[in-house]
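Protein in question passed on here:
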Amino acid sequence: MTVFRDQSAQLAACVFVLTVPAYLCLALRIYIRLWRRTWGADDWCLIVASFLFIGCCVTCIIGPLKGVGVGDTQLHKGEDVTGMMWWTLFTVFYCSGIIPTKLSIGFTLLRIAETKVVYRWALYIVMLGFTIVSMVVFLFVMLQCRPFAANWDKTIPGMYCIDSKTTTQFSFALSSTNIITDWIIAALPLPLLWKTQMNTKTKLSVGGLLSLGIIASIAAIVRLKYTIALSSSSNFLLGIKNVQMWAYVEFGLGIIVASMTALRPLLERLGWTQKSHQSDTPLEQWAAREDSRNKRLKRSLFSITAAENDMEHLTQRSEERLSDTLEHGKGPHASDHEGDISLNKASVR
């Protein structure tokens, strides 16, 4: 018996193609951030997103085995229910995971725009708007059917679900918000990079990395196209395969893009960018300043210690000379000399 039927193999293949590069880029990002001691809010957001992405991977592998991507004529008994269950679970992981992914990119840009008030406010507005819309859609997914299992099992007594038209409208809202957010985030860094002290080659490479979000937006546009064409009357699990596949691609590319924005030090070692005297983020500049300050402090402490040792040595020599003078002092003025010596000794100490 064939493991994958109809078009279900395409969805499973997408997982194997995209998962490895996504987590490889994430691992490199974690290594670089820990190595350079520049861990921040964007890294925490991406860690949260990576765990939710695992849920998407699992549902995109098991779903095709349980009916997702299979036409009605080839479905086995009960797969219309199990297929819908795995599709619903994927929707939960996707809607919750895309939020920290986009926020991670936003926090990365906030690092770059540390002193640019206008850009920071623009980023805050974009991040807040995206988060609000995404949270509303996520809550809708969780509450559209009562009980929750009614999303896939319509035989539950007393179940209630919101009509499919409303569900489609919320899907459109999320897709549109993702597309707009990706394009704004891709465009905002360009004027910032142009004004930095990086050389042209480095500006182009870093700008290219930050603008990779446009690729993720293309996946969202394709997904929106399939969502519009989706029919809920027949072959729903077959049609939903394209929507799920492109949503997975969008999520995976988002993790790759968010990870690659921190890979500039690695690109410098590979020779893809030229090393700049200016750190690539204000946080790294702060770390460099702290390191320099600590080195200067150590040098100052060493100088102070050396000076104290010299002073102690001089004091000891002075005491020895004074003692010799007292022992060999002669004449009626010996007592006067002793008083003067005591005063000199006290002043030296």
Q: What stands out?
A: Residues 276-291, 343-349 have pLDDT under 50 and may be disordered. Residues 106 and 123 are 7 Å apart (CA to CA).
